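Hey L., structure's done. Input below.
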Amino acid sequence: MSRRPERLQIVNELGKPQSLAAGEEQFARLGHGQETLVLGLGPDPAILASLLPGEGVAYVECPQFAEQMPERWAASIPPGWARLAPEDLTPGLLAGCQVLVYTPNAKLFPSFWGPIRAACQLAQAPGGAPPAASGEVWLPGDEDDLLVSEIAQTLMDLGLSVRRLATEGLAAELPRLLKHGRPELFISVNFKGLDPLGESFWLMRKAGTRVAVWCVDNPFNLVSGLKSGFWRSVHLAVTDAWFVEPLRAHGAENVLHLPLAAWPSLFASPRVVPKYDLSGRVVFVGRSEFPEKQRFFAGVALPEATLDAAMKRLDQGLRPDFAWWRTALEIERLWPGAEVRSVGLGAEQCSRAARVLTLQSAADNLPLTIFGDPGWAGLVPACKDLRGPVDYYGPLPSIYATAEACLNVTSLLLPFGLTQRHFDVWAAGGFLLTDATPGLRLFPEELTREVSFEHPGRIEGMVQRFAANPGLRADLARSWRSLILAEHTYRQRLEKLLGWLAL
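Output:
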């Protein structure tokens, strides 16, 4: 009985063991030319040595790969082959070579091979690297993706040309798109449109396009699904200032705090929807849990004692947020690896509990209306007015404007976070009551102290106070609305982003 050949095994970029496939079929050919360039020799250079001449061949190898190979590996490299460094691969050299690529490299050490593969694609494209399209921005995102419409319209208002791209299959489509010209900026929300290995990023980077990602959600949750460290080289904007230093500590080169904002085109001119009669009612609009939560946290478990301690903090009006869970679980490294999802699950479980506590308290004492998914029925049984989800770009501004008060509970996945409600409700002419998230430091303290609560038990008294003092309520609403529209719109955020990117 024949035995299967033993495969070499190495530790890849993410620190995981991986077996190496060998054989001629593991190599792909790119381009045409008199010279031969090999990108990665694979686990058995003798295979290539039997196919290629002993002289006139150059190769590049990843140092992390070579260091893990046995002595026989180095001995099997023909002495007449020249080893090149990545900086030796000029566009002229690449354009004149036929290139052999060891294809598993893309998943083994993508941060090393991604820029090299991108340089090859551009050098071997007809006409070389594409010209810049002055003032053009590429924005991946589907029709129902939040912030895509806001960003697109605001950039056009700023005089830029915006090309919206469907996200499905975009990584494979980008090389073709770049043949006809490159944008000055590629901006993604939550890494949409960028593949997990970073090939799209390196292709645009090598073409001379700046790539920025606006992390609206917890950035470490977002990068936990990435298979390479390319994100460290992206220009990262985060809505929560707490993440700036941890991201830098994990190698991020460029990080900017860029909070959420209001879109006056939608929220400053609320449309009246007659079927909503919300006068005198306290309103909450939101989901009972984020989409695909079970899949995202599959296989993650929390220590019961830690979860109990966190819930006790909630009862005391304290915040067991992402930062607290990181300390409680003693997890220092947030990438790579799945450890960060334990931190995230703890914060998410507490977030839902905080929302439930807040809404239960409101439902017990006030006329509460919840717009959201059916999950709320079992979580807040005291609420007798549960209505279905509403389209963010539909009647939401009118709901905010006509309610007596709108409730907000900020996700504990964002230690210093804010939500769209902190901007949209005021812009729509509504009135917001919010948990006392540290993110409120973005606004003047004389405004935030009037409308924020550290414990849900305060909500009833706040509502009664403003009902008894309609003049105070109106003054606060005017002050908040003026502040949001003067200082916290998406135009101002994107002007700051473009300035940071030197565009």
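The first helix runs from residue 45 to 49. The two ends are 66 Å apart (CA to CA).

-- N.
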